[in-house]
Amino acid sequence: MHLPFWLTTIALFPVLLYQGKRTRRITPRLPEAQGDNWGQYGEGEAGLSLLVIGESTAAGVGIERHHQ
């Protein structure tokens, strides 16, 4: 007998909720890098602009300063 997906999800919801809250609580929060979060490579007028959203490497997580 196969249980419907929604019934299984409802039955497991307390376990999933506990795991999610515990994971958020014990996962370390790393600080972003200090300094200017923009820059330009080369000389002259910037020919290209790049917007990065939601990416920890673009925020500089794991380094001390952005110029690194």
Automatic annotation (TrEMBL):
This is Lipolytic enzyme, G-D-S-L family.
